[in-house]
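Lecture notes, continued. The same structure-token format from the folding unit now serves as the input rather than the output. Read the line below as a description of shape only.
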């Protein structure tokens, strides 16, 4: 039986969906799983041990030119590929209009999404033939995702399992740029896709200076549009800190796996680092750490979210907290006992 899993983006959300893919396969070993994902994030899915087929889409380009011949041609091709698989079940833990569109496109007789208020967008519900009501006692997003095991008549676990991303390191891929020797550097991410999740450059510079003083090199990670901010942090630190090289997703995985320590806000790279068993400090200033924290034995959380309020409606946003202090972040680093 083919099952289609629709989780298009983003980096951290895909990491948090890996346990669902693994659990589906464990529940029904004969099941074949096709994962629909955005092209730019396909390396996080293609090759996963629980995934039998990767179907890539480019919804950003489609939205820019929805009626162009290229868009229509690509949508037809994806629909034909899904029809060839003939899935009986399609599940959509993302719960937004673009993922619901892919769920509808699957042609599966059972198209399952989350009920409100756990689903992010009400409109997405039009694509579903069934809706899952979340009964998990844990509010973590991984537990919410695992509610889809009910589609196979399997009871979800009470506690969220930690994602395991070490499969990303099994290929012979070599990084495009030279990086320090494993275990000699800390990797710090000053910002995220949502600027409200970022950590002030002045605070991170204080943290980085302390790490340099303890003998670590510090690399400042960055993504699209973030290089200047990374340079600002590195410039405040001076010798011992530098901007990380540009990375592909596979490069990023190897860079995070080789770090002695990773620090960042609620951003995809810290979830990836934790899945690689790298000691990780996650700093939460605007999103619910009970729902979104990275999981693992070597993870520490710093939260300035007001009251650590737990979200109940599937949204990670709970309001901006005060900036963290460097002392709070360094206390979390000491708890990890890595420097």
């Amino acid at each position: 039986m083919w099952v289609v899993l629709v989780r298009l983006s983003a980096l951290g959300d895909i990491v948090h969906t890996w346990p669902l893919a693994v659990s589906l396969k464990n529940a029904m070993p004969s099941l074949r799983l096709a994962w629909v994902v955005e092209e730019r994030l396909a390396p996080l899915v293609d090759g996963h041990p629980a995934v039998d087929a990767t179907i890539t889409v480019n919804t950003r380009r489609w939205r820019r030119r929805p009626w162009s011949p290229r868009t229509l041609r690509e949508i037809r091709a994806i629909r034909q590929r899904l029809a060839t698989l003939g899935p009986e079940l399609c599940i959509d833990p993302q719960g937004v209009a673009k993922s619901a569109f892919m769920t509808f496109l699957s042609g599966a007789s059972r198209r399952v999404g989350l009920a409100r208020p756990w689903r992010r967008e009400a409109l997405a519900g039009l694509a579903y033939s069934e809706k899952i009501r979340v009964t998990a006692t844990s509010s973590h997003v991984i537990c919410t995702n695992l509610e889809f095991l009910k589609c196979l008549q399997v009871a979800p676990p009470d506690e969220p399992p930690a994602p395991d991303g070490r499969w990303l390191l099994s290929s012979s891929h070599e990084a495009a740029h030279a990086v320090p020797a494993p275990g000699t550097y800390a990797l710090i991410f000053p910002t995220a896709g949502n600027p409200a999740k970022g950590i002030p450059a002045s605070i991170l510079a204080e943290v980085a200076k302390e790490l340099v003083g303890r003998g670590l090199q510090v690399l400042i990670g960055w993504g699209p549009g973030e290089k200047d901010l990374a340079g600002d942090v590195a410039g405040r630190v001076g010798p011992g800190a530098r901007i990380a090289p540009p990375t592909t997703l596979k490069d990023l995985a190897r860079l995070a796996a080789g770090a002695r320590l990773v620090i960042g806000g609620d951003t995809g790279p810290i979830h990836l680092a934790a899945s690689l068993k790298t000691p990780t400090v996650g700093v939460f200033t605007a999103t619910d750490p009970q729902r979104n924290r990275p999981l693992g034995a070597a993870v520490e959380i710093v939260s300035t979210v007001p009251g650590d309020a737990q979200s109940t409606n599937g949204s990670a946003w709970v309001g901006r907290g005060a900036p963290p202090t460097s002392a709070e972040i360094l206390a979390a680093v000491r708890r990890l006992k890595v420097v």
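Point for the exam: Confidence is low (pLDDT under 50) at residues 309-318.
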